[in-house]
Structure formats: C-alpha cells, structure tokens
Amino acid sequence: MVQVRELAPDELREIGGYELLGGLGDGGQGSVFLAEDARGRQVAIKVLHARLLGDERATRRFHQEIVLAQKVAAFCTARVIESGLVAGRPYIVSEYVPGPSLQELVSRQGRRTGGALERLAVGTAAALAAIHRAGIVHRDFKPSNVLVGPDGPRVIDFGIAKAAEAGTTASTVVGTPAYMAPEQIAGEPATPASDLFAWAATMAYAANGRALFAGESIPAVMHRILTAEPDLSGVAEPLRSLLAACLAKEPADRPDAAAVLLSLLAGTGNGDDDGFLTRAQQEAGSARRSDQDTRAYSSDGEAEPARRSAQRARARGVDGEAEPARERVAGTDPALARSTAPRPVTGSARARTPATAAARGRRAIVAGGVSVLLVGGVTIGLLWRNGQVAAGESPGTAHPTFAEQFGPVFGGGDPVTALAVGTLEGRTVVAAGGRKGVELWDPVTGKRVATTPKAAKDVASLEFVEWPDEAAGTSAAAPEGTAKVAPAGTTSLAWTSGDGQVWHWFPKGERSPNGFAACRGEARLTVVRRAEGPAAVVGCADGMVQPWDLQTATKSGRFFKAGRQITGLAAPESGTVAVSAPGGGVQMVHPWDKAKGVRFPTRGEVLRVAARSGQPLAVVVRGAGADLYDYRSGKLTCRIAAPGLTDVAVAEANGRGLVIGAGRGLQVWDAATCQPEEALLPDSDDSKVTALAVGVVQGKQAAVASVGGKMRVWSLELTQ
User: Fold this and answer.
1) From the CB of residue 249, how many other CB atoms can be counted at a distance below 10 Å?
2) For residue 194, what is the enclosing H or E element?
3) DSSP string covering 623-650, please?
4) Which of 305, 360, 474, 600 has the most other CB atoms within 10 Å of its CB?
C-alpha cells in the first residue's frame, strides 16, 4: 500500500490545473506529490526544491532533461505527461504508478527470489537500456527509485539528478553512497556504466534483503565500494556472475544495459567459462569501436572523448589505448543510434561471433536507426526516433515475436468503434469503423487504401466476409437494387450501424455499399460460415436475433427473441452462434434448425462475447472480467479477474489458445488456464482501447487495437 502523507500548511494545493492530494515522497532534489486532474485521473508531480529557484542553469537543464525523458519508451518508466513552472520552480507531471518502491517491498516482504527476482532484473535492465538509448544517465539508480507496479517494475527519477547537479559545486558528489560507482566517488562524471554498477547493487539488495556495501558511516561505505569485492554468495547463478561483471571497479570492464538484458533472457548456464556470460557474449556480436568513437558523458550531459578512461588505464600502468573488447559506448553521441550490436558482458578478449541462437527466438535487430531487442518472446525498444516509430517503419517487422508491437501506428485520429482484419486480393487490410463510416488501412505501410463513399455512420460491429468458390454467383430471389454477385474467392465487408441498418460492400468492384433495415435501434452482427455460403446473424436492441442472406438481403433462417437486448454475437463453428444479453446470460443458438441450444448462466451483466473454433467461448462480465466456457457443453473452464474489461477476442497461435482483453489497457491470457501472459498496453486512461480485433498480419496471428483513433498491431506468435 502506497503511503500518502498529508500536505503541510505551507505546501502548494494546486499545480498546473492538478489538485494535490498529498505527498508521496521527498528527496534530495525535489518533492513528489499525488495529484488529480479534472477527470479524476491520478498523476505524480515532482517539483524541484526551492533552493534551486534562482539558478537559471538548473532550470534550463531541468527542461532539457524533460525533453530527453519523453523519448524513453513508456513501458519501463513513469511516462512524462507534461511539465511547466510554478512560482518559478520547474515541475514534471508523470504517470502515477500505484505500487511500492523496491525498498519498501523488500523491507515489508523480504528478499526477492526465483521468478520474482528474474522479472525484476529483466524489467529494470530493459528500463536502463531504453534510458541510455535516449541519451540519459540516471545517476541515482537505487531501490527507492524502482517502483514495483501491477504491470512490472518502473524506473523513476532518471532526469532530475542531472538537473540538480547543476546547482551544486564541482566538488559535490551526486548520488546515494551505497549505490554509487567508484568513479562517481572519485568525482568523475557518471556514465551509463555507473548506472550498471548501481543496477547490480540494487539487484543484490533485492536478492539479499540488505545493502551490498553497507557500513557504519558514509566513509566506510565508500571505502568498501572502492576496495572491497562484493559478497554475492547469497545470489544464485547465473545472475551472480552477471552482477559481478556489472560491479567491476573499472567502468570499461562493465557490460552495457543491452548486453545485460540479452544475457538475462538468454542465460541458463552456471557462471563458468562456457556458461551464462560467454553465450550472451557470443550473441551480442562484435561491438568493437575505435578509441576516437568511444564517448563518455560530461557533467553537462554532452558527449566528450573517453579521455578519463584512458587516463585511468595509464595510471594503472597499462597501454592508454583501449583494448577493443573493453571499449565503452556511452553518451548522447549520435553514434549510439548507429550501434550495430550490444556490447559483450565481459571484457574477455576471445573472438566473438554473430548471434547464432535463432532457434531460441533471440536476435538483435538494428534497422533505420531503431534498435529493437527480440529475446525469448520479449520485445524491448532500445531507441525510438523522436519518441515514436515513424509511419511506414517497424521496430522488428522482419521477426515479430510474441507480444511485440510491430509495424507503424496508423489511423486518421477519429474515434474507432469497430475493427476487423482481413485480406483483399492477397493484401492484409484492417477495416476501421466509426461515426463517419468505414475505412480500410494497410497495416504494413500505415496508409489508407479505401474509404466507403456512401455508408451508414456510427458503426457498431464489423466483419470481413470470405466467399468460397462454390458460393459465388447471383440469386434471382434478390430484391431489386440489392442483388450481388459474390466473386469467387473474394472478400467483402459487412457491418451494422446505430440506426439498425446492415451494410454489405465489396471494396473491389462496388462503388458504394448496399444496406437494408434489420433492427429498430442499434444492431450487431457476426458472420457465420455455411455450406450454402456465408450469412450474417444480426442481434437487435430489442432482443431479436435475425439470420440474413447477404447476397439477397433476405431472411435466411428463423427469427427469434433471445433476451431484452443483444450485446454481442460470435460464431465458433458453422451454423452455431453465441448470443449474449445483459440479463439472459449466453445462449448457443442454431438459427437454421430447431436444435435446442445450450444456455450458460453467468455471474453478472454480459457486455461482450467472443469465440473461435476449438477454443473456449469468452464472455465479458461487467465489473468482473471474463468467464471462459466450453461452448459445446456449457461448462465453465476458468475465470479471468479483470474488472475493467470491456471487450475481448479469442485467437490461436503456436497451437495454443489466447484471450485478448481490452479496457483501460490491453492484456493477453492463456485460454486454457486463464493465467496472464503479457500486458500489451498498460492499465491507464491514456491506453483506453475503443476497438479490438484479431487476424493474420504479415503471415502471423496478431491483435489490432485502437487507442485515441490510432491503431497498433501486436504479434501473438512465438518466434522459434
């Protein structure tokens, strides 16, 4: 439970339109407050201490750091929302992470072990990789600056320390003594290598439950850091060897964050010469750089040649020219963006080879100035140009792996209420419906390829219709103006609107869609595959269920009432439809025969239903989550606890079923166990999903979701 202190009488009550609710913490550089905007969204606001009020350089550098911080991938930090000045003091408004700090967590629950420790190490190493690629040195990485949120660890306060240093004298040491690197104690500028030392000390704290370099006084702590070998006996292999490498006294001997992350996700060895570190080193590839290209961070955040590293080497009596295997890349230098591989984890001089572990789903990709690490089903964006992926570019489109967002972000910005994924003439397209009608987008290029020239507005549901060869032809029974020829093997679109109309359109061959009135009030549909050809089953606001022949716009089966209002329909197999109603639970119905369907009693109001042949039926229950059923027997198989869930989809990838749930965020669960797999989008107001679909994109099962009128694509497959 996060403790929020009461505001002191002399503290501000409002900053930038946000009402302050209380204090979250006070540090050496500023105070952090819990605040709320007019919509009730909670945020964290950090305000620099008043003692820096008159320092123009501190204020200027504070804002420079904000610009850099906004380039860091949002998955690993508390995302910066905005910034400004209050009474002349700079402040930063960031995402509020509802969770304790690592220091609080360990103090209350004890040391981290097993999977919890591994997840912590991976998440924080990924954060450092992203922060360093944005040209930022944290300078104060420690347990209290790691928040353990519900969706994983977040690293905070990675820009303030540098801004605060501008208001100190040159002889002042910036950082927390127990987690400072030897070079920081010596008064040299902090670099990414310094952050790796602090990261390792922090992970050792999490594993042991105590500070690695604890002492009776600050001088004693500093002496231990400078001279003593760390006691890592309480840390299990292979993590122990990696932490030892990061705790090297010389910064040039430490791995960088990208190599650490790769090692964490690849390593299964026991820490000896042929184990954990060596394999990761081989996979990192050659990272040799000439001495003149090597950079270190200067005190004002600008890059300078690594002169101090060479001076330290000469002081130790070795050649001043850096050994290739120990060269260090750091800083804001543009060469970072041109890096072709992570650095190796150790300073070993043995020859390195390119990555050879494709069978384990690991590879480093660098393309178009964007570095992306794909390792064991986890995707980490290491560098985002201008804070986002440019249209038409993709962080890893060549080898998208599980839970990776790939391809461009696309869409016109208008609210999207329905999505579908299909194929037109061999080209994958995403259909997006909203208040203005339906648009077709290419998810590979991010370009719009078609718009319905005449269409109903306020699209409620939308699906592609695949026409097999045997279903092609015309129908003499079609009413005038509605007859269609279904070209053999082609695809059409069917959708419903808020006024009860059903629309059908062949994008290749028809200038305008054809529509007919089916319901009074909002209608929803699902497309059912039948031997006679695909049909649309429509659910109406008055509870009626209506099967329609899409070629003729005529009644196709029996019409019947299934409840007081139809909220969702899904067709898991030919001739069978799942129908959900708020008070009537879920029914499996057969509109083309008189077979009695199965009724599933549900635990609450049903919002949506989703199905896929051979996989469980997913039912969204308001305020509870999703219940999964065997749609043939009606037996409940498992439950997903996700109170904010509003929409759901079911997919199958790599031979296993997946449930994708949307609401304030996007999450994947295992359909067989209801266990969470990955969070594709965090649970926040800024990640509210308005439409969701699954389908095949670039030959892989994928999820497509719309947030704020923009669509994104995630792979649901594991790359082997």
Assistant:
1) 16
2) helix 192-208
3) TTEEEEE-TTT--EEEEEE-TT--EEEE
4) 600
CB-neighbour burial class of residue 104 (10 A; exposed 0-12, middle 13-18, buried 19+): middle
The yes-or-no verdict on residue 497 having pLDDT over 80 is: yes
For the chain, what are the domain ranges? 1-96, 101-286+338-356
Q: Distance between CA atoms of 326 and 591, rounded to whole angstroms?
A: 71
Distances (CA, A) of 64 to 61, 300, 302: 5, 11, 12
Q: Which of 668, 590, 674, 569 is nearest to 632 (CA)?
A: 590
Q: How far apart are the first and last CA of the chain?
A: 40
Q: What is the mean pLDDT of residues 370-378?
A: 29
The whole model's pTM is what? 0.48
Architecture of 1-96 per CATH? Answer: 2-Layer Sandwich (3.30)
- Please tell me the chain's helix, strand, coil percentages from 3-state DSSP, rounded to the nearest 5: 20, 35, 45
List, in sequence order, every beta strand (DSSP E) within 70-203. Answer: 80-86, 89-95, 146-149, 152-155
Q: Which pLDDT does position 63 carry in this prediction?
A: 65
292: amino acid identity, one letter: Q
Same fold: 1-96 with 101-286+338-356: no
- Give me the DSSP letters along 284-310: H------GGG-EEE-TTS-EEE-HHHH
Mind listing the pLDDT tens digit for each residue in 636-686? 999 998 888 999 999 998 888 999 999 988 999 999 999 888 889 887 777
Q: Bridge-partner residues for 569, per DSSP?
A: 579
Helix (H, G, I), strand (E, B) or coil at 212: coil
CATH code, residues 101-286+338-356? 1.10.510.10
Beta-bridge partner residues of 713: 406, 704
Question: Tokens standing for 328?
Answer: 């260090």
Which of 350, 344, 352, 289 lies closest to 321, judged by CA? 289
Gap between the Cα atoms of 421 and 130, Å rounded: 32
Q: Which residues contact 145 (CB under 8 A, 6 or more apart)?
A: 101, 138, 155, 156, 157, 158
Active site residues: 140
Contact 336, 371 (CB under 8 A): no
CA of residue 358 relative to chain centroid, distance: 23
C-alpha 569/C-alpha 586 separation (Å) is 9
Alpha carbon distance 355, 391 (integer Å): 29
| Alpha-carbon gap, residue 474 to 478, rounded angstroms | 8
SS3 85: strand
Q: Which residues contact 345 (CB under 8 A, 6 or more apart)?
A: 242, 245, 255, 259, 260, 263, 277, 280, 281, 284
**How do residues 454-472 score in pLDDT, each as one tens digit?**
656 789 999 999 887 554 4
Per the CB < 8 A criterion, the answer to whether 589 and 546 are in contact is no
* Contact in structure between 376 and 360 (CB atoms under 8 Å): yes
User: Which 3 state secondary structure label does DSSP give 504?
Assistant: strand
In this structure, are residues 545 and 585 in contact, taking their beta carbons and an 8 Å threshold?
no
Tokens 């060895």 correspond to 269
